[in-house]
Amino acid sequence: MAAVVLGWNPATAFGAGPGRADYAMAAATVDRTGLFGIRWRVGRGQQMARGTDVWLFAQGRHGRGLLGHGVVAAAPQPGAALPARLGLLAGVVFDLLLPPGDALPAEVLQESVPDLNWNAVRSTGTVVPPAAEGQLRAAWTSYLRSRPVPEDWLGAVDPTIPLPGSLPQDTLREVAVNRCEHDPDGVQRCVAFHGTSCAACGLSMEQMYGPAGASFIQVHHIVPPSAISPDYVLDPVADLVPMCPNCHAMAHRGSPDAYTPAEVRRMLASAAGPRPVRTSIPGTIPSPEQLNAQEDAARLRDTSLPPRDTQ
Ligand SMILES: [Zn+2]
Ligand SMILES: [Zn+2]
């Protein structure tokens, strides 16, 4: 593991070279897609191998604090528009960028990560001492957890989505993939196309829990993280499938990639456990449980039917 802090003055452009961006736009992109890639000018000898953790530290007269997290996607190299003596350009992919006024304050960092001199962070990169890497990650994670959670951010209550910006670098792509599962627009379009029955076991939450379960289903992103690049665009119909919370959690136990719905279906078929109640498809023969349920319902409506035998 290695980590580097990039200092940034919010009064200046975000990133370097032709891909320079507006910070608000970058933060909005991370919010929507889970990732934002940018080029950053770093020092010539800067240790920034691919996979290095990147921390974005805001400084300048508008206040100082930790604003974001990402990883090095492309090691520093000379840029076409940048003479080598002025530095190199590194490719950085951010997975979390906080609103500018929302940074983890420098005073807190000074206290919880004392091994790094927060008064001397360079925009071209300051290496985090190995002893401080864990402290920094811990401070960031606890800060994120302490912040009020936006109501529409479903990930906050769903264990299948890890906290963004708090993970080891190799799981970063997975975060992006999982966040696709919580894009409300994508979820809606996936369900509109595929319906609300689980793609693996066929369960409908409404059938299981009654009206309270109507239209409740999770969606699973079936594109493996290894196939995701920063410019990936989600196709809610091809890339997402509805899954019940059980099958969904099982799918995410697959490693390195999640199990596919077909794999979960095979597990269900080969296991000896009780079969989930399947949605009755028109034209299929209802299971004994379904027949019992229908009888029970009829009995509630029509008390003239004799009570069912119970033993
Ligand atoms: Zn299921
Ligand atoms: Zn999933």
What does it look like?
- By secondary structure, the chain is of the alpha+beta class.
- The strands form two sheets. Strands 1, 2, 3, 4, 5, 6 and 7 form a seven-stranded mixed sheet that branches.
- The model is unreliable at 151-161, 279-286 and 300-311 (pLDDT under 50).
- The protein is elongated and about 65 Å long.
- The chain has helices at 23-33, 106-112, 130-146, 172-180, 184-194, 205-209, 236-239, 245-251, 261-270, 288-301, and strands spanning 3-8, 36-42, 53-58, 65-77, 88-97, 104-105, 126-127, 218-221, 240-243.
- A hairpin with a 6-residue loop joins strand 3 (53-58) and strand 4.
- Bound molecules: zinc ion (2 copies).
- One zinc ion (ZN) binds next to strand 8 and helix 8.
- One zinc ion is lined by residues 160, 181, 220-221, 248, 251-252, 258.
